[in-house]
Each structure stands twice: as structure tokens, then as C-alpha cells.
Amino acid sequence: MPAWFKVGAIFSSIAAVIALVIMILEGVIAFVALVSFAVKALIVLAFVAVFAVVAFLAYKSWRDRRSTK
Predict the structure, then answer these.
(1) 67 pLDDT exceeds 90?
(2) pTM of the model
């Protein structure tokens, strides 16, 4: 077997390992992006819930004050 077959096999193995590492890093980056989006969505939903509760309490207070007059 010629020596350049061995060299080609070594370089192709290194290239395959590098490609696998790049693919794993892309997957990790995508997972982190998904988790950060989920956290941001939860924060937005929490603010919407707080505003809804405040609006409900303000409406209830306004309604109770109007009905007592």
C-alpha cells in the first residue's frame, strides 16, 4: 500500500473529526438559542400576566367604587 494512502486516510480522519466537532457546536448553539428564546418568552408572558392582573384589579376597584355611590 502506498504511503500517500496512509496520509490521505489520516487527513480524511482529521477532517471527519473536525466536521463532527463543528456539527456538535452548531447543535449546542442552536440549543442555547432555543433555551434563551424560551426564557425571553416566559419573561414576556410574566409581564403580560402582571399587567393583566393590575388592569383587572383597577377595573374591580373602579367598579366597586362606582357601585357604592
Answers:
(1) no
(2) 0.64
